[in-house]
Amino acid sequence: MMIDRRSFLIASIFGPVAWTNRGHAQGAARVPRVGILSPGSPPPNDPFKQAERFEAGLRERGWSPGTTVLLDYRYASGNLDRLAAMAGELVNLRVDAIVARGQTIAAAKAATSQIPIVMAADPDPVGNGFIKSLARPGGNITGFTTQVFELEAKHLELLKQAMPSISRVAMLDNARNTVVNSEQIKRREVAAANLNLKLTDIAIGEAAELDAKFAGMGDAGMQGVLISGTLWFIDPKAVAALAQRHRIATVTNLREFANAGALMTYGVSFSDLHRRVAKYVDVILKGANPAELPVEQPTKFDLVINLRTARALGLDVPAPLLATADEVIE
């Protein structure tokens, strides 16, 4: 009910606000344009189906993509060095809003302080300097945060439950992250110590590094790996295949990884987030001020266990853990 109430307040309170963007300044006859900046690949190679779910959300709110709203997609396909140029392209197109997720938010922010930016997801928008506060963002950026400080600690607990004998775990993180979330790191380190796990940090900056990183983990005797939720540019199928080849149990927050063959995922439903992003785009195109639109936090988390992968790794997942799963892939 909290989300429904907030949706109502956004629509009723901020909808009439005189936030003058180009779409309204140039008259009602102009069809608004929305830019979508993605670190991943275009359909049909996007496992997160961002475009499909975002456009479904727009239709739910009365928009017709290609007719009543024009959508300009830019895909980095894992090459994050392209993001700055693509963000600049969207600004030059004079779009009325930009949808961004993960590291694309920083690129969009650097490109414009005027065009509204809707975050599809960011783990720490205040710490990353995107907004002043969740309640009142204060600039041209709003949307959704996936900030859950204890998430990685929970991932370690799940690995220990699935593999009681596990002792060595890698943390595969984004080498391009410039902001360190000290609270999240502290909680995962405390959890690792309490679970008698040796946790090794491994950074990756490009998708092309995956083979070498997993080979290194295998050589080092890693039994499990946590995949950072900031690694939007890696392919879940490639990760799952490498993890099984090197017999490493994988856990992350993105359901799509379990669908692709990772052992477990626990986190927010990103398919739902991509659809709900349309709500913010809708009210911004109708005149709402992003500075005053509160950033929404996650409220629902799903545990998905891939039992086929468990069998391939020779794991006998305990029945109590299976019983807590929202979905078991067999």
Features:
330 residues; alpha/beta; Rossmann fold; seven-stranded mixed beta sheet; 18% strand
Major β-sheet, in short?
7 strands, mixed
Structural domain count: 2
Rg over CA atoms, rounded to whole Å, is: 20 Å
Secondary-structure element pattern, one letter each: HHEHEHEHEEHEHEHEHEHEHEHHE
Task: Please work out how many helical segments DSSP would assign.
Answer: 13
What name does CATH use for the topology of the largest domain? Rossmann fold
User: How much helix is in the residues?
Assistant: 25-40%
Strand content: 15-25%
Low-confidence regions: 1-27
CATH class of the largest domain: Alpha Beta
Secondary structure tally: strands:
12
- Mean of pLDDT: 87
Spatially, the strands of the biggest sheet line up as 7-6-8-9-10-11-12
The shape, in one word, is elongated
Shape-level CATH architecture of the largest domain: 3-Layer(aba) Sandwich
* CATH homologous superfamily annotation of the largest domain: Response regulator
Q: What separation lies between the terminal Cα atoms?
A: 33 Å
Structural class by helix and strand composition: alpha/beta
Question: What would you note in describing this structure?
Answer:
The structure is a single chain. The longest helix has 16 residues, at 270-285. This protein has 330 residues and is of the alpha/beta class. 38% of the residues lie in helices and 18% in strands. The protein has 13 helices and twelve strands. The two termini are 33 Å apart. The radius of gyration is 20 Å and the shape is elongated. The strands form two sheets. It has a seven-stranded mixed sheet with strand order 7-6-8-9-10-11-12, with helices on both faces. It has two domains: 2-147 and 269-292, Rossmann fold (3-Layer(aba) Sandwich), CATH 3.40.50; 151-267 and 301-329, Rossmann fold (3-Layer(aba) Sandwich), CATH 3.40.50.2300. α3 (50-60) crosses α11, α6 (151-162) runs parallel beside α7 (182-194) and α8 (210-219) runs parallel beside α9 (236-245).
